[in-house]
Please model this.
Amino acid sequence: MPDLQPRTPQLGLRANAAQFTLLVAVNALVGGMVGQQQTVLPLLAGEEFGLTGYTFVFTYVAAFGVTKAIANWFAGTLSDRWGRKPVLLVGWLFAVPVPLMLIWAPDWWWVVAANVLLGINQGLTWSTTVVMKIDLVGPDRRGLAMGLNEAAGYGAVAVTALLAGHLAEQYGLRPAPFLLGLAYTALALLLSGVFVRETRDHAHHEAAGHVPRADGLHDHLHAGLTDRQVALQAGLKEPALSSASQAGLVNNLNFGLSWGLFPLLFATADLGVGEIGLLFALYPGVWGAGQLVTGALSDRIGRKHLVTAGMATQAVALAVIALGDGFAGWAAGTVLLGTGTAMVYPTLLAVVGDVAHPAWRGRAVGVYRVWRDLGYAVGAVLGGIVADLLGLHAAVWAAAVVSAASALVVAVRMYETHRPAAAAPRG
Model:
């Protein structure tokens, strides 16, 4: 007679290799949805819609960032209550109209509206794949898991930005680059709907065996926190979580600034669309590939010093870009910026996984990503205002100063969150 007892979820990368790999592929498609437009939209704003003011051009980045930040909160809350897979599927449904709206947009506000939908898609899908991977791997290899997740997402941003730039150069700014988004959405709906499995039971299994820290540091972070308490701890009160939130915001401030400003800055040197696409691809490309190393490295050496060094590296990189005036200097700066971001991005997510109780981990990831993705909007607004008042180079210098200040906050306030001795056996 077959055993009808439900199987106990197994934690670990090896035990969940097939599902983990599938989720990596899904997150690559999430990243590709952003990459399809990053090289093209700033150029589209000027050539087809006649926009010249930097602040106005950056409206689509701000709309994307604010919407994504809000969607992150709902992704975390709903995935804890209803499960991960339903949230993932709903997120992909929001992506369906985005490429079509960008192809047919008769004015700039269609582009802004498309980016509102894209923000919802990104917040729901990316946050959910992050939580699902943390569910599957357990406490031992969070850094590696986040490195693989973020490498897939931002590697796809880079590859798709490069492809979109090539298609735009060969066939025009519309519709060719946005056909990539249509293909990505169709494939993602198929994979998410048919092959992805729910992972919330893995979190419940981990919560049943959760062991508090011996030093009592997390005694107040018990399983029964309300949504409001989770938001306060992750955003403002708890030193490691709130330090991670501010560093994430500044990191995406830099990304939002680069998204709207870098193509315009690079165009001042009369570079072609292909060269601009290559420069833009270098940043997320190094960022994506570097996370394959830095995520696992944080499991070995800890989180805090990697985050501090990464934010400082971003500050130096932005200074190099601000001083540059041609392809070689900008290429060096974008590679360095990608390196600094790779040091920070998976490590901050691992910090949240280290500190948050499994019972409210989804909500903690959501709150962190609310703060982090507000950086898109802050970067767009800050970059646009400073660029309009003082010029493009001054906007990059402003971001460099903010990044240096963020590194100092992490160095002073964050404690080390990773405890290798308490980790579960590798698997």
Summary: Residues 85 and 197 are 7 Å apart (CA to CA). The chain has one domain: 17-199+227-421. The chain is about 80% helix and 0% strand.
